[in-house]
Amino acid sequence: MKRLLRPSLSRAVSKRPIRRLHATGSDLNKQQMAHAAADAEPVQVVLNTTSTSTKPRVVPDFIINHVAPTHSGSAWLQSKRLSEKEAYGEASLEGGYKQFREDIRNIVPDSRVFTDPVRTLAYGTDASFYRLVPKIVVKVHDEAEMIKLVQYAAKNKTPVTFRAGGTSLSGQAITDSILLKLGHTWRYRKIWDDGKYITVEPGWILGQVNRMLAPYGRKLGPDPSSIDSCWIGGVVANNSSGMCCGVAQNTYHTIKDLRIVFHDGTILDTADSVSWASFQRTHKHIVDGVMQLAKQVKADEELSALIRKKFSIKCTTGYSINALVDFDEPLEIIKHLMVGSEGTLGFVSRATYNTVPDYKDKASAFIVFPTVEDASNATWELRKAKCTDAVELMDRRSLRTCENMEHLHFLRGIPDTATALLVECRGSNAEEMQARINQAEKTINDAGLLTYHVRLNGINFSRDPAVCTAYWDARKALIPMVGAVREAGTSVLLEDVAVPVQNLAKLCNGLEEMFNKFEYYDGSAFGHALEGNLHLVFTQGFDTPEEVKRYEAMMDYLCKLVVSLEGSLKAEHGTGRNVAPYVEMEWGKKATEVMWKLKNLFDPSDLLNPGVILNKDPNVHTQNLKPLPVAHGIVDSCMECGFCESACPSGHVTLTPRQRIVATREISRLEALNTASSLDKAEEMRKSYEYLALDSCAADGMCAEKCPVNINTGRMVKDLRAKSVESNTDSYVNQLATIASKNFGLMMGGVPIVLNTVDLFHKLLGTKVMSLASSFVGPLVGLHWNPYLARGASPIKAPPSAVQTNAQNKKVVYFATCVSRTMGPARGDFEEASIHEKTMSVLAKAGYEVILPKGLSNACCGLIFDSRGYPKQGEEQGNNLEALLLEASENGAIPILCDTSPCLMRMKETFQDAKLKSAMYDPTEFAANYLMEHLVVAKREKSIAIHVPCSSKKMKKDKYFEQIARACAMEVTMSPVPCCGMAGDRGLRFPEISGGGVQSSVKVPPGAAMVIRDPAVGPNTTIAWDEVKDNCSEGFSTSRTCEISLSNSTGSHFKSIMYLLDRCTIAKESQATA
Ligand SMILES: Cc1cc2nc3c(=O)[nH]c(=O)nc-3n(C[C@H](O)[C@H](O)[C@H](O)COP(=O)(O)OP(=O)(O)OC[C@H]3O[C@@H](n4cnc5c(N)ncnc54)[C@H](O)[C@@H]3O)c2cc1C
Ligand code: SF4
Ligand code: SF4
Predict the structure, then answer these.
(1) Do both 655 and 757 map to the same domain?
(2) Is residue 981 part of a domain?
(3) Parallel, antiparallel, or unpaired: how do β-strands 160-163 and 178-182 relate?
(4) pLDDT tier, 837 (very low <50, low <70, confident <90, very high otherwise)
(5) CA 700–ligand 3 middle distance (angstroms)
(6) Residue-wise pLDDT tens digits, 491-530
(7) Which residue among 541, 562, 889, 992 sits deepest, i.e. has the most Cβ atoms within 10 Å of its Cβ?
(8) Looking at the structure, do residues 527 and 667 belong to the same domain, yes or no?
(9) Is 1023 contained in some domain?
(10) What DSSP character marks residue 502?
(11) Which domain holds residue 870?
(12) How many domains does the chain have?
């Protein structure tokens, strides 16, 4: 039986079962080792380098794909499976699910319907600590599809759950029924009235919407810290908020209109009077029912007062029943009831927001108080004074985690009772901001609240972006820091409560007692104090019934504490399954009954996300807890938050980083369970895991850029690929790689010939016939042609001598990478010359003497080998190159220009010599630092596009790209694509990742591309990335293979930025002569 993490190994070496063991550093699980020895089966050991666990872990056994659910509240779901036989994929579907699958065959193509165990599990996971595995996942592309899917679900009585970014924490975005997951197609947007309003579809990430509004000086009100990962659908449905938005700027208070799909597929567009008139006719019972409830609530003074009071602070427990007291018009009531309804009343297919001003003038102060009471009193005073935009409280435990961070060393040695407030003041201009700062300082001083800063340096508001960023980064790091250091196999739990600000101190003290009582010694509390909202972060394993009981007892205690302080059990994260059993405790019987009536009115058959918000099961919050088994050292600290997903080029085709980790963990768990059925399931999962998780990963590591705990899933993938090859040392592919490495120059010499031959066929056959032919040939040879494939590069020539170039004592070592030595421009591009010719031309104009490293034709950084799973050959190549460059640059004394960004990053990562590393530059940084001052640059281009490769983003070179591009063009469109997915030639082998190929029905997900204009041309705006062809003459970047991918996905020719520089510059001397 083959095992997951080394598929090739199991294929090639052994037909016997291989036992996998997980070890923490040197601390291997001894029981397993002994057991393995006794079995004498081949043993694989995965070192979990980040894990600190020392005790043997129990493998929990409560995730299911086929166990009858008991939690959801849906009668249908509570029925048992008809057959107990193991079945996977469509064969496992029964009853209504089987029929639903049949019914939707003509609605959604098979490529977007998933029933296999890998993708149902992976797509079904959200950021909460609950696990339910959907039976069917459908990627839905538009509203018309959604209507039909909802209707067929109603027909078959199969509940549905909508899914946006999957960053929910309370268990509201998961299901064991049908998951309707939004594809990357929900991207309609319209900005109007000078940015005062924006209409968006639910697939936009909140941060992207803000980037579209930035040129207007506006943004959306909600500001959750998941801003760059959560989607509009989730923001509306959870009524999310954050540090600055408070209650006033959440979706409930800033929504203008919604377009809603109801349980029977009916549409209501609240902006359209015709739609409303029709809804009133067809759904009179809903309109009447809502009005009846509003009347009942308004007539009940006690209930109305309770509702008003509870929503004066943040509250996402239960439904937004404030709509029943805030509005008289049924249209407004229905619209506002949808906000925060967590997909249980209807689907939001469009949202129009009233935007809010985005003030640029801001300053922050980190103020330490001697006691939590002082900090809480200060918050209360500041709230009354209405002069601050954010006040974040951090308890003593939180402060300990950031005392070693830059600009925060003053926290060292403060007393055990200290509590801090991070305060931000903003203004529409500097004067307004200063007035607010003055008011804030006066408020704290007048209240006589002693601060430690008085002794240190007063209440010090800083305007320095570096200092302010350090403060806010420290605040934002509090959750990840707990996640990063937790024991492997435990979950990070994030509770989210709010109390009236006057009760904040009591809440803090109560939480401290609670952490001690239930032995959550790593627990800390911090949060949006201005709104009385605190987050509690702590870690918890759910391996044993005792641990689950401890959690249950703590939740009971917490809920009683918060309710006794007149607070909200969920301030901003939504009720979900997590506090559904406590809704009545918080709201009382009358209000809860109103909520049930609303649910029955809008969803009479209980098919929309049943069991979420309202649930009759008092134990729903302790069921279906997510196991987080130890799986691989690189990813064991993953919290499954989903922040990495938006950076991943393969996410829209196969799996995102989080989903790769989830699948890896589950196979690991199943293997560790070691029962016949678990091994059978693991085997089934491995069938698709290799392609979905390993082959289709670009291994670019962009996920690490977004991950709060810096997990590079690509590294795990490379490691697994390498292990698979490593174990096959005698295999012919490994031997072939070694031969290729040893004869690299010879091999690369043949590449231009091959490329030119392919190009000749392209010329003879034309693009259409060639595309057709390649669709047959591509799968056979494993490389897929596209019309933008490079032609062969011209051979690299010796650089002109110093005398010929008029070199002014300036020298540069030019490392033309193997990619630029072999790949020239594509057919159809008017450029004929190769990158190295353009680079030499620019260097000559700037008066540089160019030195080519000896043995250049054999030189390679090794990336090509490493990314394919041949790290040994890659290392050899890298070592050779380092020696060549040390010699050519006189040990790093002469600067080195490398023309390909991914290669430069690999060199920086793997070279040993520090001086050499700091002497190496990509084309943009070299141009900015060494060339521009020696050249006359003209804005010759009208409108161009720029793509910063992921490697350059990681090396923080973005600013140089922008600088060069803006010097050469009147209008520059900056690509929003985090990674093009090309990853060397992987995009040619798996074109679907880079936006080509039939599997990829959506091209590279278009984001909001920033268009930066010369002031003479007009103000900055944004466009969708797929509009780049219409807006820009060409695109420029610094990686030839990425450029092929970008050209193919946009239809616009992309090439090296050196072409742009050569076109737009002349030597200073030439100007003098002219
Ligand atoms: C580390 C971390 C920090 C966080 N910080 C904050 C914070 O500061 N403030 C905050 O408020 N939240 C926070 N969250 C929670 C979460 O990110 C937000 O609630 C977010 O808005 C959820 O959006 P999503 O796109 O991930 O939605 P999902 O999780 O996919 O879905 C959320 C809910 O909306 C429903 N839904 C999705 N799309 C639609 C639709 N189109 N129509 C109807 N229903 C729909 C789903 O069924 C589900 O019930 C945080 C989460 C994490 C992991
Ligand atoms: S890899 Fe990082 S960003 Fe991605 S889900 Fe895990 S913790 Fe979150
Ligand atoms: S390395 Fe790239 S493709 Fe692979 S999981 Fe990370 S972001 Fe996705």
Answers:
(1) no
(2) yes
(3) parallel
(4) very high
(5) 6
(6) 889 999 999 999 999 999 999 999 999 999 889 999 999 9
(7) 562
(8) no
(9) yes
(10) G
(11) 748-1069
(12) 3
